[in-house]
Design a protein that fits this description.
There is one protein chain. By secondary structure, the protein is mostly helical. About 55% of the residues lie in helices and about 0% in strands. It is built from 7 helices and no strands. The longest helix has 18 residues. The protein is elongated.
Length: about 160
């Protein structure tokens, strides 16, 4: 029997018919992912480790350091910036602060400033703050009589 592309019910929405016809993709919890979830999972920030931080800072310092000697070589600074952007996104994950830094690097004379180093330091600080802001554990309030039953006996002196 051929696969039915549209529902026989006139009240079905486009989203329902689209969900039935497209190939389903599931996340780790077994829930079906919508396209926005798939896109977000591609740009999810990796866990910051000391190695990732050191490599990202090294990439930024090397990129900023190579900008000045290669200014006279045509297209070399732009190639350095593209490589620095790709390596930084690979190491730290995508962050919106990387976009203005990437664009600023194409402005003459401004590209000699250490923008990659400053941006990588800012992204690392923001990612560390986001990783440390975990919600506190839930508080369980017990009734007063339950507290009395579970208390250890008073210490004898």
């Amino acid at each position: 029997m051929p696969r039915q592309l549209f529902s026989a019910s006139p009240r079905s929405t486009y989203r329902e018919s689209f969900a039935r016809t497209r190939a389903s993709v599931y996340n780790r919890a077994g829930k079906e992912m919508i396209p926005l979830d798939k896109l977000n999972s591609m740009f999810r920030a990796p866990q910051l480790t000391r190695t990732r931080i050191m490599l990202a800072l090294l990439v930024a310092l090397v990129a900023d350091g190579l900008q000045i000697p290669f200014q006279l070589v045509p297209m070399a600074p732009e190639i350095i910036d593209v490589i620095a952007m790709l390596l930084t996104v690979w190491l730290l994950g995508f962050h919106l602060l990387l976009l203005p830094t990437f664009v600023v690097e194409f402005i003459p004379l401004v590209d000699m400033l250490p923008t990659w180093t400053g941006c990588v330091i800012a992204v690392i600080a923001l990612r560390k703050r986001a990783q440390h802001n975990t919600p506190p554990p839930p508080v369980i309030n017990l009734p007063p009589e339950a507290d009395q039953k579970n208390l250890p006996p008073p210490a004898q002196q």
